[in-house]
Amino acid sequence: MNFSTKIINWYQQNFRDLPWRNTNDAYKIWLSEIILQQTRVNQGLPYYLNFINAFPTVFDLANASEQEVLKLWQGLGYYSRARNLHFTAKIVVEQYNGIFPNTYAELIQLKGIGTYTAAAIASFSSNEPVAVVDGNVFRVLARVFSVNYDISQNTSKKYFQELAQNVLSEKNPNIHNQAIMEFGALQCVPKNPNCESCVLNTSCEAYKLNLVAELPVKLKKVEVRKRYLNYIIVQDSIGNYLLQKRTGTGIWKNLYEFYCIESENEITEKEVLKSVSQDFSIEDFYHYNNFDVVHKLSHQQLNIKFYFVKTKQVLVENVYTLQEVKELPVPIVLHNFMEKIVF
């Protein structure tokens, strides 16, 4: 029994019944794949269902405003995925008459779709024989075939892609691809996998050589940058709130946030007050002492504090009523803060 047959047999007995596995609609499969990038299935599932409910077709997604899309995405992180999702929906409507492409060659041309995602959509929607390689697949292949190449290197990624293609089932590439990813997610997990009960343990080279814990190899370390963000909830004299839309290429692009003072190091409450006093005529000021938070992203650690300012002024630009604030897409760390103080 070869590798593919074993993986598929295991999958048919152990797979999770997920909604995007019960369709060959390329649009729905695309939605699920974009949502599940950098996201666990349990976290992504309710977002997928919400998106399908709000935007049942690619026309609905294309016709939505970016603000609607970002609000629905709120909490998933990596917001460029949502912006690319919206952009690509418009392209599919304009250039493909709303018929979502289902071939690798077409899919790879669309914004936000890389080699893995194009392979996944093509194989799951049209059974195209192109292998998927994600983190789970790297791990399974590295262990089963004892490959000690550093997966952070492009040359290694090319090797793994060729290996995945070589072991791909010609008859059932769609099921094979689902199976190998599910196997990595449920059985061949990163830490302490149950190798004794694994259907591949008799052919797994890493198991034979006691190298399971060492594979796959990933030598490149992520440098984490520390940032200090002091958010000031500014309320003007008639009860409106000051928020600004983030622009540029940094985190949270096109999301809204409160007035913010960013510093290289932690600053004191007095320093915050002094800075804010330069822009506002202050009637009341205080620090939300119990809501300091450390928000960790893949490459950044955000040290966040929240303050309140009541100003005597009537603000004109970038001000919103309380109800409008609740409807704006904001970073999840701000959303959580607003929920806690019953904003």
Describe this structure in words.
Strands 1, 2, 3, 4, 5, 6 and 7 form a 7-stranded mixed sheet that branches. The chain has 343 residues and is α+β, with helices and mostly antiparallel strands. Strand 5 and strand 6 form a beta hairpin. Helix 1 crosses helix 11 and helix 2 (26-35) packs across helix 3. The chain is 43% helix and 14% strand. It has 15 helices and 7 strands. The protein has 2 domains: 3-214, Orthogonal Bundle (Endonuclease III, domain 1), CATH 1.10.340; 225-340, Nucleoside Triphosphate Pyrophosphohydrolase, CATH 3.90.79.10. It catalyses: Hydrolyzes free adenine bases from 7,8-dihydro-8-oxoguanine:adenine mismatched double-stranded DNA, leaving an apurinic site. InterPro entries: A/G_AdeGlyc_MutY, DNA_glycosylase, HhH-GPD_domain, HhH_base_excis_C, HhH_motif, MIG/MutY, MutY_C, NUDIX_hydrolase-like_dom_sf. Keywords: 4Fe-4S, DNA damage, DNA repair, Glycosidase, Hydrolase, Iron, Iron-sulfur, Metal-binding. Its EC number is 3.2.2.31.
Compact summary:
The chain has two domains: 3-214, Endonuclease III, domain 1 (Orthogonal Bundle), CATH 1.10.340.30; 225-340, Nucleoside Triphosphate Pyrophosphohydrolase.
